Automatic annotation (TrEMBL):
Signal peptide: none annotated. It comes from the Eukaryota. CDD domains: RRM2_NsCP33_like. Residues 87-99 have a biased composition (Gly residues). InterPro entries: Nucleotide-bd_a/b_plait_sf (IPR012677), RBD_domain_sf (IPR035979), RRM2_NsCP33-like (IPR048289), RRM_dom (IPR000504), SLIRP/GR-RBP-like (IPR052462). Residues 75-86 have a biased composition (Basic and acidic residues). The keyword Electron transport does not apply. It comes from Mucor saturninus. Residues 75-105 are annotated as: Disordered. This is RRM domain-containing protein.
């Protein structure tokens, strides 16, 4: 439980400001604001890693629902991502679509 999810971040929040804000509650080992691949703009959430689960828990309790960079943030224990099916959106692995050449039937 040493990794926290932080949601509701301001578009102006940076990795450094996130690090500084949470370092009041313990030893932060990493702080990342997640950015859109194409635009480089914040997606409004991030993750903060602490050196111990106790520090992470104290930070979550202290910061959840508080204001940071002008926004009310949600802080919770991060959960591991589950495996997603491969093969594109929606897990559908079917063929192309739209145009059908009736000469093939």
């Amino acid at each position: 439980m040493s990794k926290l999810f932080v949601g509701g971040l301001s578009w102006n929040t940076t990795d450094d400001s996130l690090y500084d804000h949470f370092s009041k509650y313990g030893q932060v080992t990493e702080a990342n604001v997640i950015k859109d691949r194409e635009t480089g703009r914040s997606r409004g959430f991030g993750f903060v890693n602490f050196s111990t689960p106790e520090e992470a828990s104290a930070a979550a309790d202290a910061c959840n629902g508080t204001e940071f960079d002008g926004r009310s943030i949600k802080v919770d224990v991060a959960t591991e991502r589950t495996e997603r099916p491969s093969g594109g959106r929606g897990g559908y692995n079917g063929g192309g679509g739209g145009y059908r050449n009736n000469d093939n039937y």
